[in-house]
Amino acid sequence: KIEESKFHKKHTDILREARIPFSGSNEGPRVHDWRHTFVVYSLLKMQEEGRDMQNSIYYLIKYLGHKSITQTEKYIHLAERINASVKEDFASLVDCLFKEEGLANEE
Question: Which of 73, 74, 76, 106 is the most exposed place for a label (fewest CB within 10 A)?
Fold first, then answer.
C-alpha cells in the first residue's frame, strides 16, 4: 500500500512533467479527476465501437466497484456533454435502468 502523501507527490510530479498546471489539492487536477476521465472516455469508446451499451454499462459499474447505476449515472451525463450522440444511445438504457432501481418518475 502506498502512503497517501507519497501518492499525491507522485501525482504532482507527473503533472509537472507533463506540464499540466496544478492549482492545489482542492483546485485540481485532482487524482480522482483521472478516474472521471477514464470512465467518460471508456463510455465514449464503447459507444463509438457500437457495443451493446446495456451490457457494457454493467461491466463498467462492476469495474468501478459501484453498487448501482445511480453511482455511475453522473459519468453518463459527463459523456453526453462531450458527445451528443451518446445521449441518444443511452436514453433508453437510462430509462430502463432507473426503472429497475425504482427511480423512474411515476405518473
Answer: 106
- Asked if residues 16 and 22 have their Cβ atoms less than 8 Å apart, the reply is yes
DSSP the chain: ---HHHHHHHHHHHHHHTT-----TTTS--HHHHHHHHHHHHHHHHHHTT--HHHHHHHHHHHHT-SSHHHHHHHHHHHHHH-HHHHHHHHHHHHHHHHHTT-SPP-
Total residues found in the chain within this entry: 107
25-74 pLDDT, tens digit each:
677 788 888 888 888 888 888 888 888 877 888 888 888 898 887 888 77
How many CB atoms are located within 10 Å of the residue 15 CB?
14
Residue 21: asked if its preceding bond is cis (omega within 30°), the reply is: no
C-alpha cell at 39: 470512465
Q: Indicate the pTM of the whole model.
A: 0.60
